[in-house]
Design brief:
alpha/beta, Rossmann fold, five-stranded parallel sheet, 12 helices
Amino acid sequence: MKLLITRVMPDPVAARATAGFDADLRAENTPLSAEELRVALRDYDVVMPTLRDAFSAQVFADVPAPRARLLANFGVGFNHIDVAAAQAAGVAVTNTPGAVTDATADTAMTLLLMSARRAAEGERIVRANAWDGWHPTQMLGQHVTGKRLGVVGMGRIGQAIARRGHYGFGMSVGYVARSDKDLPYPAKRFANIEALAAEVDFLVIAVPGGAETHHLIGAPVFEAMPDHSHLINIARGDVMDEAALIVALETGQIGGAGLDVYEFEPEVPAALKALDTVTLLPHLGTATLEVRTAMGHMALDNLEAFRDGKPLPNAV
Ligand code: NAP
């Protein structure tokens, strides 16, 4: 069975793929080009794509009878794949839920702490030899312990963030999701994001990307947030209206932001880079060797199940 893997993988993942499939391991770390996307559907039985491999409705339309039968996405987020178009073309889609949860929640807490405590700004001061020593009013940030945490999207990652906030930092938890959650700690569900935003010190975004959540977080949310509060986004860039965030930060409507993802990734607006109140990470959510290896193995579990005619463990 002919497999295309669209990025360089950790060694154990590459070895397992090569042992189990007639595998082409792409050597580039860039997204598939327009031509490569079509070749993937036309010339391979199965594909392991990832973030920014844009399998749009147009790509499926251009390859009317695809040889490919499965896109086993490397990652839990699959908003770069038009799942309806894939299904209409007879191409199944799977993802890697669970493998990414703790690492991404850890990244959210990293950003929350860095943003609250001005860690990136402080680091820049030290590196610039501009630190003139400790004093009682130097670089005062926001206290985190015991504060109000709001989570937009209380799924696997949202709950892992809330757990860390509650048990690790004694925070009160509020959330917005499509359904009620039965949680082992107190957590108030709010009717809408603006109502939640008005009652938090830290608002963390953990919903999937896609048409349904495009610009879910925009000017009305920033207007509702207290002016000392921080916005943390580890979900997908286009869930947030980046231009509105820049205005909210520049006008002091909110206190700060910690971002792992960007609306036009990997482009990061100069206006964001110019602001000391923003912490900017290069999409590090799942970036540990253990987690990336686990993600690859999970994608391979799906590919092997397909090859062996078994049910797909993580169909979306
Ligand atoms: P999940 O378990 O499916 O959770 C998604 C949550 O969002 C659910 O609670 C869902 O509500 C809620 N939701 C969906 N649409 C909503 C809407 N329109 N309004 C309000 N809430 C909505 O997914 P997950 O595993 O936690 O992952 C979440 C996302 O994180 C992924 O899709 C991915 O894009 C992103 N991610 C980023 C990184 C990174 O590197 N930064 C890493 C991993 C994942 P219900 O529970 O009521 O359905």
